[in-house]
Design goal:
This protein is globular. It is 70% helix and 8% strand. It is mainly alpha-helical. The longest helix is centred in the N-terminal third of the chain and has 31 residues, at 3-33.
Amino acid sequence: MTASEVDHFADACNALYAAMRTNRARLDAQAASASALSDSQAQLVTPLARLGAMTIGELAAEARLAQPTVTRSVKSLETAGLVRRTPHAHDDRRVVVELTARGRAHWDRARARLRANQRAAWDLLPEDLRPQAVRVLLALTDAVTATRPAE
């Protein structure tokens, strides 16, 4: 790959990232005005919604976030009554986190908001590019994950 090709790739990645960041900020502003889950909160609790209760460490791994970040966020979500923390059955040093019914309802609404935005973007893609777009996005996710800087 030439330097010019890398520059074009970087410009395309940066443009996509900027567009997604702008959309997320607008969705988060809508969520804040509706006292709902932000997009980042919804992404954090998605593993709980899909897989059920898990430890903070498991949630951090599933959400691909640092454990201290998850711990802080879970405390905030617990204060809001959206998640419940209970002692681990076999290890007193760990806790298990699960969505409350209120948290599930908030997640459902946040997911519907995000899906509507994603559906609008999908509908704008030419039909013949849709399967390729999914493959490229998954490959790009793998590449970015593989090159993630150390914490």
